[in-house]
Amino acid sequence: MTGPLRILGIESSCDETAAAVLEDGRVLSNVVAGQAVHAAWGGVVPELASRAHQEHIVPVVEAALREAGLPPTGLSAVAFTQGPGLIGALHVGAAYAKSFAQALGLPLLAVDHMRAHVLAHFIRDDQHRPAPEFPFLNLTVSGGHTLIVLVRSALDMVAIGSTLDDAAGEAFDKGAKLLGLPYPGGPQVDALAAQGDPGRFRLPRPNVPDLDLSFSGTKSAFRNLVLPLRGPDGHLPSDLLPDLCATLQQAILDQVFAKLSLAVERTGITRIGIAGGVSANRGLRARLVELAAARGWTVHIPPIAYCTDNAAMVAMAGDLLLRAGRTAGLEVVPQARIPQR
Ligand code: KG4
Ligand code: ZN
What we know:
This protein has 2 domains: 6-127 and 306-323, 2-Layer Sandwich (Nucleotidyltransferase, domain 5); 136-301, ATPase, nucleotide binding domain (Nucleotidyltransferase, domain 5), CATH 3.30.420.40. The mean pLDDT is 95. Helices cover 40% and strands 18% of the residues. It is α/β, with parallel strands linked by helices. The protein has a 5-stranded mixed β-sheet, with helices on both faces. The chain is built from 10 helices and 10 strands. Bound molecules: 5'-O-[(R)-(carboxyoxy)(hydroxy)phosphoryl]adenosine and zinc ion. The site of 5'-O-[(R)-(carboxyoxy)(hydroxy)phosphoryl]adenosine has 19 residues, from helix 4 and helix 5.
């Protein structure tokens, strides 16, 4: 390969339609269209997500190319999210990426969304952030997954811990729903928790072996805590919200950090990265920085735009796959599930 590699990334695994162009890992454009349509339903409705992706995909890709200042013929390859995710949503991005690649005779790259979250650490932009050295541990916390990943190299990684039931983001979102907060509730719990006292109420901590996690017990315990606090009109007194959010957030983060600390102890690796939507949580970021200072860990915290779902991370993963010669055939199909260990 000669000259710079310019990769178009396309992401459509859940409820964001996103496209980005990277040149040798440097961001030329990063466009994300959210889907407000789900808020009324209190969660992502797969059928509505697929329709919204169909509506957004063409203008989002056009915007990414325009912002990058490139005609489609200036691209080296097209990368798309193969999975895991909502199958109908994935089909939209996959079909579009395949047609695009075929029409322009470009190589196609099939990207694992969870690996792309980890590879977001290698995206280059104007801020000076050193990329993690290998091996490192990555805490990938999103609405669909909670993983502790041992990253041996860019293309060699394995989850050494995983949630047995709900993801951390789900625990935030379902807890927020119980409190009457709009979807997705994670950012609102984060904001309210900052003003609350996590010691006012108590939630049990689960006892899960090894590096695995579980949030279903936290969810049930939170429900049992919140329901009796509702008034006769079924509403929660709003002055309880900050303390309840702080209690929920602390219970989720206590477990996450207990398992992350155990992973450091077991592997001896003290380089830690975070990724996924929940890694935008201010409490999580502050606690990670504090723990790292106390224990001598090196931490890698990407900007929030590369933590939540985005296509720059997909293009970054595509860049690394292309350099390794791992292109996909046009017969490649999306996969709702991709085992991570
Ligand atoms: O990675 P992501 O954008 O999409 C998935 O692949 O799931 O993660 C979305 C999740 C949602 O559950 C959302 O509530 C959560 O990330 N989230 C947060 C925060 N920002 C987003 N959770 C807690 N605190 C936040 N600040
Ligand atoms: Zn994600």
